[in-house]
Amino acid sequence: MKSYRPSRAPCPVGRASRLLGDRWVLLILREAFLGVDRFEQFVERLGINRAALTSRLTILQEAGLMRRDPPEGKRAHYVLTERAHDLGPLYREMAEWGAKHLFEEGDAPTDWPDTQSATSRRPWEDRSRRDRDSVP
Q: With 81 labelled, which of 49, 88, 126, 135 sits at a CA distance of 20 to 30 A?
């Protein structure tokens, strides 16, 4: 199983890439921003195998980006922490960049709210639904 080891790189981008450079980590966080909070929901939405998901959720918890509630037992919720919510603008920018540069004309992104619409709810801006407590 993978484990989280913080980077010692002198560059903040290098340090962030140690954690956020994993495809599954990015997609798990995306799904959490969109409201997914149960293990089985992540498996179903992402098509990730259970061992890989367990590993990445552990990494996200060790890095202080997610909290498991309750910490032990079954039927837990995986909750974004304040540290994770700070990534919201980054996800918005990635979604807007991807929509602008990676879709053919006439195609539309399917897994992210319309980033061009002023009326669309942006999951990273709606913190009232999520626990914002920081991990100690």
A: 49
